[in-house]
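Milestone M4 deliverable, item 7.
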Amino acid sequence: MDVAGDETRAAWAIASRKYEDEYAEHLEQARTVELLPAEVDVLAELVGGADVVHPMSGHGLDDIALVRLGARSVHGLDYSEAAVSSAQRRADELGMPCRYTRAAMPESGLEGACADLVYTGKGALIWLPDLRDFFTEVHRLLRPGGWFYVYEAHPLVPLWAWDADEIRVRPDRGYFASSHVNDSFPANGAVERQHMLSTIVMACRRAGFEIEHLDEHPEPFWYPGGVTAAVWDGRVPNAFSLLARRT
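Output delivered:
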């Protein structure tokens, strides 16, 4: 993760408190959590018996869902010590084969060829200044024939205004900009990277992957509380998914 800049560090120090403040809530969610239906459609036949690495694992709920889908083990990596410690505590309480390590990607600190599947997304790629280095590290972590899966906010999402009456593009942001400042909770004030969909696809290809699946989805993976926005009515993309195979 790129943590350069006092604003980004300060924003993440505040945001990381959520992992501890909402521990009990996340524990209850973890008892029944599942991946999104679109994720299950792609991953159901690939996860069984797999060793999974999850860069930017956050609260770790997806890791528990991956185990329920059939993963043998999940190793979560996150920059936030609060995220790592709370996710490990939760996994231990539930008896899940998940372990967590603090790491600032793209330096995972893991041995090469240790995973059958690398899973990430849902607010991960926006913290990576250089996708090439990240995808190269993912390729190194995978065993030959292993899979890389991403379910992430669509690159157009930073442009959408949260207006209830009509879909509008924010006048202060552009699709081809290199970054923008987050102005919503929990990462308010942090600098987020903007990667075009073409940039993501080509960085994946250049790292040595064969792309097997690419789809765009109208539903966001996260709805902020108390907000109703026209951009979530199914007319514009709010997420995308990508599955690639290490050759």
